[in-house]
Specification:
The protein is mainly α. The protein has two domains: 40-105 and 226-251, no CATH class; 110-221, Cytochrome p450-Terp, domain 2 (Orthogonal Bundle), CATH 1.10.230. Helices cover 57% and strands 3% of the residues. It contains twelve helices and three strands. It has helices spanning 31-35, 41-50, 56-69, 76-87, 92-101, 110-124, 133-149, 168-178, 184-200, 208-218, 226-247, 251-260, and strands spanning 17-19, 24-26, 29-30. A three-stranded antiparallel sheet has the order 1-2-3. A hairpin with a 2-residue loop joins strand 2 and strand 3. Helix 3 runs antiparallel to helix 10 (208-218) and helix 8 (168-178) packs parallel to helix 10 (208-218). The radius of gyration is 23 Å and the shape is globular.
């Protein structure tokens, strides 16, 4: 019998889910008997990525992040979902996808960008990590200066609406502190907020998307996957936006307002 690789059945390993004719297994558990009705969706989402079950404190922080990022009103992601649903009401998946595709560097993506920024600065720092606020402030000032020298913004710093402070930020930091999960990412992020005025000449608030990234990173979740969690949270918000669009349509008004107020400008063919 030939043992060549050409004749072997390919195998595609996974430690997530599988099924037989009588059983569905997920994460080594019997889905129907061990998970349904016994774990929350947030707990399962954490478990699927981290490959470990979160503690009660980790779950509280994690689900607080999901709540914080679910919906912010008529953001571009919500408008995109509503307008896509207007155009193709037979394509719920298209409307959801349209909104999720808008999660980038200005909306939702800040969660991941901030976590990566903080993780990079922590990795660059010679051990041991700071122990006092003064030491964290020194580290934060250097991090802000480095970004400014590169002509870049500090992710998570500033907010277009919450000029005097994002209401989500102190609440999430408080929850992490209560659960003993205020780690180095949050501590550095707090220091960035304290030092923004001194380094930049004006104090900027720490926004909710940024603190969510810091909190998730302190839970040990990979910084380069955190945009996925932001999108997971926003998927719930988008579904709510589409449900509201069905109850109380406004997408056509948005479309008509733009269309009827479009100002035609003749192209400059000489340029």
């Amino acid at each position: 019998m030939s043992t060549s690789t050409e004749n072997q059945t390919p195998r595609f390993p996974t430690s997530l889910g599988t099924s037989t004719s009588t059983k569905i297994s997920l994460l080594g558990q019997d889905l129907a008997q061990d998970l349904m009705g016994k774990v929350s969706f947030g707990e399962l989402a954490f478990w699927l990525v981290a490959m470990r079950r979160p503690s009660s404190g980790e779950l509280r922080v994690f689900e607080s992040v999901l709540v914080a990022l679910a919906d912010h009103g008529f953001t571009p992601t919500a408008i995109a979902a509503r307008l896509t649903y207007l155009s193709a009401p037979d394509s719920m998946q298209g409307a959801m996808a349209a909104g999720l595709l808008g999660g980038g560097s200005r909306f939702l993506g800040v969660t991941e960008d901030c976590a990566q920024f903080l993780a990079e600065k922590l990795a660059e720092h010679e051990s041991p990590l700071p122990e006092t606020d003064a030491e964290w402030d020194e580290m934060a000032a250097a991090a802000i200066e480095s970004q400014r020298a590169k002509g870049k913004f500090v992710p998570g710093l500033g907010h277009p609406n919450h000029k005097d402070g994002d209401p989500r930020t102190p609440v999430l930091i408080g929850i992490a502190t209560e659960e003993g999960l205020r780690g180095p990412h949050i501590k550095l992020f707090e220091a960035v907020g304290r030092m923004s005025g001194k380094v930049l000449g004006r104090k900027l608030p720490l926004n909710g998307a940024g603190v969510c990234g810091a909190a998730l990173a302190d839970l040990g979740l990979p910084p380069d996957l955190l945009r996925g969690f932001a999108l997971l949270a926003r998927a719930a918000g988008l579904l709510g936006q589409i449900a509201e669009e069905r109850r109380n349509p406004i997408a056509n008004d948005i479309y008509m307002a733009v269309d009827r107020n479009a100002g035609y400008v003749a192209p400059n063919l000489d340029s």
